């Protein structure tokens, strides 16, 4: 079995309190009479202002890591710290408040509400947090993703790439410290995927970090660093790799 290693993503813009820290994190599930260990002692630091891609073979624990780091799933053991706050034993109410204040999440399937317009979908997180969304702020964030002129359109009237950009705008509107993205380009054609990745690159800065799960070496190569998982453990990482290097490392893990 490969010895687990601590991974530190290597941004070019970051310092100060890390965006996310995982310390010896484990996550187990029951599958009938068997216990499945999805994460097996993961220790990793995601510095502020960094974009980290997480890759690995199917079943390596990528999505579980993302969900645990974002507080969407409870860890079985270890510690999770987000924006300086230990969320390991936080109450559901505290986790909900943290996600509304510090965390944004972008899903492969967009998760837009079909009956709402683009601007209504974007404003939804603020409404759920009991805040009155500013029309100016909503328009500004849609403009930032190139969709100000589509703000009155419903999801069925938008292309897949446009829907994903609405989803990113929705995640951005609360100005989160950390944006988690689970296969954000997985359902898009190559042209739309490139535009979404370019948008994500523009979002990374001193006060915003991205942690992205992807299976696409070209997408991972847009990040500052790439973390590789296998069997629930961090087994490798690369700083500023190109797509060919990412593909080669991933192929080695899948062999």
TrEMBL record:
<dbReference type="InterPro" id="IPR017871">
    <property type="entry name" value="ABC_transporter-like_CS"/>
</dbReference>
<dbReference type="Pfam" id="PF00005">
    <property type="entry name" value="ABC_tran"/>
</dbReference>
<protein>
    <submittedName>
        <fullName>ABC transport system ATP-binding protein</fullName>
    </submittedName>
</protein>
<dbReference type="InterPro" id="IPR027417">
    <property type="entry name" value="P-loop_NTPase"/>
</dbReference>
<keyword id="KW-0547">Nucleotide-binding</keyword>
<dbReference type="GO" id="GO:0005524">
    <property type="term" value="F:ATP binding"/>
</dbReference>
<keyword id="KW-0067">ATP-binding</keyword>
<feature type="domain" description="ABC transporter">
    <location>
        <begin position="20"/>
        <end position="255"/>
    </location>
</feature>
<dbReference type="InterPro" id="IPR003593">
    <property type="entry name" value="AAA+_ATPase"/>
</dbReference>
<dbReference type="InterPro" id="IPR015854">
    <property type="entry name" value="ABC_transpr_LolD-like"/>
</dbReference>
<dbReference type="InterPro" id="IPR017911">
    <property type="entry name" value="MacB-like_ATP-bd"/>
</dbReference>
<keyword id="KW-0813">Transport</keyword>
<dbReference type="InterPro" id="IPR003439">
    <property type="entry name" value="ABC_transporter-like_ATP-bd"/>
</dbReference>
């Amino acid at each position: 079995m490969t010895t687990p290693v601590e991974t530190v993503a290597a941004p070019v813009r970051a310092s100060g309190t890390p965006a996310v820290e995982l310390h010896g994190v484990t996550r187990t599930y029951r599958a009938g009479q068997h216990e499945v260990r999805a994460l097996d002692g993961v220790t990793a630091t995601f510095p502020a202002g960094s974009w980290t891609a997480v890759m690995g073979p199917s079943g390596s624990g990528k999505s579980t890591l993302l969900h645990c780091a974002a507080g969407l799933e409870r860890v079985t053991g270890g510690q999770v710290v987000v924006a300086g706050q230990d969320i390991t034993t936080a109450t559901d109410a505290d986790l909900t408040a943290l996600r509304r204040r510090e965390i944004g999440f972008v899903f492969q399937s967009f998760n837009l509400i079909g009956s709402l317009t683009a601007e209504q979908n974007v404003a939804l997180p603020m409404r759920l947090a009991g805040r009155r969304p500013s029309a100016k702020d909503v328009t500004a964030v849609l403009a930032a993703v190139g969709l100000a002129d589509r703000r009155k359109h419903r999801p069925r009237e938008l292309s897949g790439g446009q829907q994903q950009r609405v989803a990113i705008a929705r995640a951005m509107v609360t100005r989160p410290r950390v944006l988690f993205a689970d296969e954000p380009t997985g359902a898009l054609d190559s042209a739309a995927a490139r535009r979404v990745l370019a948008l994500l690159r523009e979002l990374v800065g001193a006060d915003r970090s991205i942690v992205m799960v992807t299976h696409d070496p070209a997408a991972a190569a847009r990040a500052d660093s790439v973390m590789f998982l296998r069997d629930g453990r961090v087994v490798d990482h690369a700083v500023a790799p190109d797509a060919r290097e990412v593909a080669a490392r991933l192929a080695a893990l899948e062999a």
